[in-house]
Amino acid sequence: MKDINVFETKKVLRIGQRVEIDKIDSEDDEPSEVYASRIEDIKGSMVFLALPVDSMLRPVILETGQTVEGRIIDDKVRVYSFTAQYERIGRVNIPVWIVEMAPTVIRNQHREFVRIRVSIPIQVAVAEQDGSMEVPFHTHSVDVSGNGISFLSAEALQPGTMLTIETIPIPSVGRIHTFVEVKRCILSQDKQSYLIGGKFTDLSKQIQNKLVKYLFSRQREFIKKGIIPK
Length: 230
Known about the structure:
By secondary structure, this protein is mainly β. Helices cover about 10% and strands about 45% of the residues. The protein has helices spanning about 10, 205-225, and strands at about 5-10, 20-25, 35-45, 45-50, 65-75, 80-90, 95-100, 105-110, 120-125, 135-145, 150-155, 160-165, 175-185, 195-200.
């Protein structure tokens, strides 16, 4: 069972915190895209989030009253799930979403779903229907979590496609070789490749825990250096 704690939102929020938005008026457990943002200002229950953009760098514009769900990551890399209601577009030096936060957030000790932007060289092979594997190709990760990975591919891969992915040796983790199910495939920003998002299907809990620790150690390094990968 997950270790979950409820906190008052106002005691958790700080300007500059990283935010991930993964649900907009949706009950889908597999979001098609996760939007990165940051807290730019706080006025009571109203929070000003840097205007998110999608994978094509288009601003994400909502309708008043839409429900937004996501995660807040503080400077100690603690993760809190939140729910908010979108109000309108505003400006605090930069364009922002103005949202009204729910009065409480949930701290989740299990951080495997938080994606960290990190480039890791990988080898990818597509599984054929007869169980054989296509000739592998080499690429690199765009972001990684304990639950999945996204990477660039020259070819489109349809959701539901099964892959094998092998990484180079990762510090304190080792080499990961696992099956991945494609969950999304979208044209990348350069319009010359595809951004593939996949879910690990047979990663052991031991390796998952090591991977999460490695990813959050990298995130702490980014924070100390004042770098928040987008």
